[in-house]
Amino acid sequence: MTTRYVGAPVLRVEDPAFLRGRAAFIDDIAPPRCLHAAFLRSPHAHARIVRIDTAAAAALPGVHAVLTGEDFCDELPFTTTIATRPECKTGTRRLLPLDKARHVGDPIAVVVADSRYVAEDALDLIVVEWQLLPVVTDPEAALLAGAPLIHEELGSNDFAHITFTAGDPDGVFARAPRTFSKRFHFGRTHAAPLEGRGVVADWDATTGKATVWTSTQMPHLVRGMLAGQFGMPETSLRVICPAVGGGFGLKVQLFVEEAIVPLLSRRLGRPVKWIEDRSEALGASGHSKEVVMDIDLATDDEGRFLALRGRYVGDGGAYLAHPWTSLIDPLCAASFLPSFYDVQDLAYEVRTPFTNKCPSVAYRGVGWTPGQAAREILIDEAARALDIDPVELRLRNAVPDGIPYRSATGASYDGGSFQGAIRRALELVDYDGLRERQATLRAEGRYLGIGVSPFVEQGGWAARIAAVNGFPGFAYLDSASVSMEPDGTVTVAGGFQSNGQGHETTMAQVVADALQVPFESVRVLQGDTDTVPYATGSYGSRTAVVAGGALLRASGDVRAKLLRLGAHLLEASPDDVELVDGLIRVAGTPSRSVTIKQAAAAAYWGPRPDDLDPALSATRSYDPPETFSNACVVAVVEVDARTGQVAIERLLVVEDCGTIVNPLIVDGQVSGAIAQAVGAVLLEGLPYDEHGQFRAATLADFLFPKTTDLPSVEVDHLETPSPVTEGGFKGMGEGGLIGGPSALVNAIADALVPLGAGASVVRTPLRPCDILELIDAARAAV
Amino acid sequence: MSDQDTALHRVTLTVNGTSRTLDIEPRTLLVHALRNELSLTGTKIGCDTSQCGACTVLIDGRSFKSCTVLAVQADGTSVTTIEGVGSGRELAAVQEAFKQHHGLQCGYCTPGMVLATVELLNQNANPDEAAIRHGLAGNVCRCTGYSGIVDSVKAAAAAGVGK
Amino acid sequence: MIPAQFAYRRATSVADAVAALADPDAKVIAGGHSLVPMMKLRLARPGTLIDIGGLPLRGIADGAEIVVGSLTSHADLAQAAAFAAAGLQAVAECAAAVGDVQVRNAGTIGGSVAHGDPASDAPAGLIAADARIRVAGAAGEREIAVDAFFQGPFWTALGEQELVSAIVFPKPAAGSASAYESIEDPASGYPLVGAAALVTVAGGRVTAVRIGVTGVSGTPFRATNAEAATLAGAPVADAARLDITGQDVFGDTRFDEEYRRHIAAVVIGRAVERAIARAQGGSQ
User: pLDDT digit string (tens) for A671-680?
Assistant: First the structure.
């Protein structure tokens, strides 16, 4: 078999529709007679609802309904838990609250009107009488006795308290020659896809069937959760996912709005659309990655890592993200405490209290981002204290390349290029030359900083990887189908859901090679639960591994039938024929061949073997073993000590995601994730004041990285195929945002060392004012 | 306010070369007039407050953020949306450059980014990387990290877009 | 995010617009890039919008003075060669520093000035250039010196029933040059601090200087201590600290007051340095 497409920079087939503005996103879905919904959201962080007067709003011409929590009393509440973790409580949430608002942006009422214009006018006319309640916005304060309770029925704000120990970490710490500690507060950030959330629903009362269009990364899971919510068969609910304008993990949650909008359509007998505006997106969709961490490292005098301890307190916000819960950040952070460093004595503790803030949800890299930051910043500080080069210290402790290794937290690495990626990165940035230039510049009063952040990441969230991350006990069904049509063209269908990753291209590449057909002859269907096989969606770097694996298996089934059909046409034994470049030919006698098209036609119209089930279609699933990608990020920055501004000179990534399907797309994923890392560290912030007021309601406050905020990202590849997965794919997409922030923070800290402020970097974001404050404080301390 | 002034206003625009007349509320935003009244849904809404540029269109040949322009303000102007770039059959050179250089991922910023690129290259047919980044600073992309976009604009300039 | 309802009138002449302003609930809209977002957030709810966009107030007339029509866009201002030729580079540089391309295309100098947004770039250049703001009212036109125009946040000397018709820039003496320096808020493109300096150099010495500062505080201001230091050849940034001490400096969640004070002095120093270099025919 020859490989023509996998590994090649195939141009994306989805691009022309986007470039012409012809792709339909959720706001472009416009069923006839569609009404428009808008939500009234709480202006207070924590307040009892004394009274809601909707009369004036309901009387406005063009308004069809104004509904509050009372109107949804008969509906099931959202119920979220991780049943397989006894340490967790169960959280319930009414679709709209009856009792109180729990964060600024909490939906309180909903208006349905002829247009969004009228709906927003009606929102102005709703009068709510509030009784303000005490507020807690700090996760550690939320755990203290006497803290205001967000959910009184749970008895405390502590959603989960999870501990884990391997070996004898406390004993090792007691005996260790050197110990180091770091407290780091990774700041709240936001996936902030450029397209926000949105739902369109059309519930047909005559048939009892409903169609829900939603901007999601997981159409089938949405269908299942909504069908349960509505008490209807899954066959009565069709979920269609149009083009998705970015997801980054945010759209791997089911949101209450997605449940409310179909109910509005059921009640009014007309389609209803809700499109989130940017203020709703920023304050009321989901925030991510805020974890307060205390990490301890024990070493010997040569810097050999002996033990690690970590305490992780996530900020869960007011409600549990459905279905992953707020553990998605702190528990994933803890599970990767050891990274690829050879440490077998380890302990962690995870807590994730409720607070009066926006719920915390998944965002690219989830808790691996803050966890990586805290650990890698501590390693840099230890290196300075030990007077060992920080990269050398990492190399001394990294697991060797290419061999299986079981981490102290139970992850089975399938062999990576942990050390190789570091060495390659050093070579590409000319690390020694950079250090020399840094010394020269320092003598001139200029502050160059270098941050190196190597990492290992899980590739392909599925049952076994989820368990490694602390989410045990569930299987995942991810299936996909391959069908060859009578003319030899191929239809691929699956429940994966592209939100920018180009699955229509990459999945076609995989199948085209497996069936030895032209890439152009393969079409890919996704995003409609009525037409594609069941899968849990696209998130957690999983589509290449999970869907790619299922498609390789399904293609194998189809291929076996093609070989039998071809052999039959050639009057040869199936064992003697091979599939090469669109032909089925007798091995060793290439002149005796038929085309795949002839074999496909034979399946439908004959001649064909009597004992062959001729359906040229296969649906297969794949629940992969554990697989792990790895990479190394290098950031080079210059800090202007007079203004606190950080200029990024270089951002370089050496990436190893196993077999590469499409280097163009891999590079794009890396570059995009790195830009989000720049945002998380230098620009983005989601501040709440002491009253729980949210201070980032527009993009004038929450700063997306712009063209002028970063240089082009340099990407280099190593390719260590997985020995355990179908195709050797390891999965990627999140890594830039796992390794990027710590590379940047370490680069800034490195720049600040001569100013005496290296170790004082204790949180993100690091805006110019923060950096200047660190410099001033260090000067004052001298 | 008088009833006469709040009544529907007649607005005439030349959109992608065709004259269109609309009777709309004065508060109607240009982006909504294009999307809802004229079904030109290629223009996207990203931030609502003029930071992101997803809603960029050309008005009399210059780029504007149509979420922050009232449709009545555009009365009498000529508006180009993404649907007016290239022919129905073939991508324009600027669009082809984005395809060739992976200048888009989710595609949501893309229409605005393409139109901002048209303006940029009309003003400066041979921009260096700094000029490209400066010229596109009003358009946000959350997916690409801009590397592919900068490469695309360089390629579009090399292909003679803007000359 | 939709504006509340309002009445809309397209002004047919300056006099028509002025007459319409008799309604206290009316507001003038030019480019709309300051007003429309506020209206969409429903933080501004004018009863009537008077659209002056169609009035013949656009264009730059270069004569004994440079007269800029109030509807001239920042983009046109940034590209006008007349300013650099007159030593008023800072005026064009202020315009070039506004927001991004689309905002510069939509935003007008008159709208920006009339809005009195203390965080906009334009006032620094106007102050350095000793510009006059020409306004039209019921009693006809009058001119207001820039030093008397900006009075506080979103508060100017513009009367209730007046609109800005032009900005008049006197041409400075031979041997003059100017420069604008700023540190921008990465989101809005508004300056956290912007400083424009206009210097006249004769016989190797600075013989005249004006420095305008914007973005830092509620009112754009002249940095008179920094001006004195410039004339005396003393360190400008140190003197600039005195100018900022008297100001009611902004602070927000991203950039606090202390930070803005600190960078203001740095930026004022840089503007003066660059203006002098230009006047001496040195680097740009």
Answer: 999 999 999 9
Please give the CATH superfamily to which domain B3-84 belongs: Beta-grasp domain (3.10.20.30)
The C-alpha atoms of residue A24 and residue A15 are separated, in whole angstroms, by 13
Domain with CATH 1.10.150.120 in chain B: 93-158
Q: Does domain B93-158 have CATH number 1.10.150.120?
A: yes
- pLDDT tens track for C28-74: 999 888 899 999 999 999 999 999 999 999 999 999 999 999 999 99
**Most B-contacting residue of A19, A503, A506 (CB-CB within 10 A), to test interface:** A19
Structure tokens at A338: 């050891």
Domain that holds residue A107: 31-133+192-284
Q: CA B72, CA B26: separation in Å to the nearest integer?
A: 6
Nearest 10 degrees: Cα torsion A173, A174, A176, A180: 50
Which ipTM value was assigned to this complex? 0.97
Contacts of C105 in chain B (CB under 8 A): 62-64
Write down the mean pLDDT value for chain A.
96
CATH at residue A748: 3.30.365.10
Contact A685 C4 (CB under 8 A): no
Contacts of C86 (CB under 8 A, 6+ apart): C66, C169, C171, C172, C176
d(CA C150, CA A6): 64
Closest by alpha carbon to B64, among C1, C73, A281? C73
Which of A15-24, C113-122, C221-230 is least confident?
C113-122
Task: Look at residues C34, B53, C251 and name the one whose alpha carbon lies nearest to residue A704.
Answer: B53
Nearest CA in chain A to C99: A700
pLDDT class for A13, splitting at 50, 70, 90? Answer: very high
A-C contacts (CB, under 8 Å): 57
Look at residue C284 in the predicted model and tell me its pLDDT. 46
Which residues, numbered 9 to 48 in chain B, qualify as contacts with chain C under a Cβ-Cβ cut-off of 8 Å? 9, 25-27, 29, 48
Residues A443 and A585 reside in one and the same domain: no
